[in-house]
Amino acid sequence: MCRHRRGPSFNVGVPALPSWKPPLLFVLGAAGCVLLYLFLLNFPPTGLRSATAGVIPVLVLAGTTAWLTARVLRAEGWPPAVLGLGPGQRPAARFSVGFMAGTAQAALWMGIVTLVTGATWHANPAFTGTALLLACLFHLFNNIGEELVYRGYLFLRLASAWGAATAILATSSVFALLHLQAGLPWLSVLAVVFTAALVFGAVFARWRSLPLALGFHVATNVIQDATGLRGGAHSLWTPQYAGGATQQGPAILAAIAVLNTAVALALFLWPRRGQA
């Protein structure tokens, strides 16, 4: 009789390697992918200030993490369907649904900023379509790499061993730490990056669809850039803040943290069909 190990919510074959080797190889491989990505991102000919605005490093990140994920799935004997990438799982449609949901989430962030600061939004005279296109490509491929690392194979292994809640917290913590290492203020990382990762993890845990979580993640980044929440030449609009608005930063971060955490909890705790 064929034996099966604990894994996704359906039986998967026994891997060709001992059970500890695929996760270890994945972690080591992912670390190598990230180090290569960071090197290219800080290498002037391919970095953020190059003509391609960092698109080449994220293409490398997406390609290497996709190859790594395919290797460990084969080692485990798991089909791509465990990540929602099966041909009958409509990954493109799931991505589109996730993108719309992520757009709604980012719109709520924009509403928080408007309510707290009294900001008004105006057309950005410095906007260029090329900058927005490059920003969209950057976020798409960067988020493919991030989702494959944080909400992909390793998430399933953590969830099968210690439960989905632990997997969400663990992957979100590492996700936040790497953003902190990149130089973001710790308060922003804790209030926004970490809690947003909780939402991405809850989406993946509930629907077991990487395209769905990816669409949500990409939308939150693209909408921030396009609306001027993260200003630049890629922003269609730019905010103008009322006097004293700069002192409202902690209040904005607190409100976004509460919103994100509430959404993550609602998604994670909402009863599934057929579940008590």
In short:
The chain is mainly α and 276 residues long. It has nine helices and two strands. It has a two-stranded antiparallel sheet with strand order 1-2.
Structure description:
With 276 residues, this protein is an all-alpha fold. The protein has 9 helices and 2 strands. The protein has a two-stranded antiparallel sheet. The longest helix has 27 residues, at 91-117.
List the helices and strands and how they pair.
Layout: H1 21-41, H2 55-76, H3 91-117, E1 120-123, H4 129-150, H5 153-162, H6 164-181, H7 186-207, H8 210-227, E2 237-240, H9 249-269
Antiparallel strand pairs: 1-2
Distance N terminus to C terminus? Answer: 32 Å
Unreliable segments of 5+ consecutive residues: 1-16
Shape: globular
Q: Report the structural category.
A: mainly alpha
The main sheet comes to:
2 strands, antiparallel
Q: Roughly what is the average pLDDT, rounded to an integer?
A: 89
Question: What's the Cα radius of gyration?
Answer: 20 Å
Order of secondary-structure elements = HHHEHHHHHEH
Please count the beta strands (DSSP E, at least 2 residues each): 2
Into which percentage range does the β-strand content fall? under 5%
With strands numbered from the N-terminus, the spatial order across the biggest sheet is: 1-2
Number of helices: 9
Helix content: 55-70%
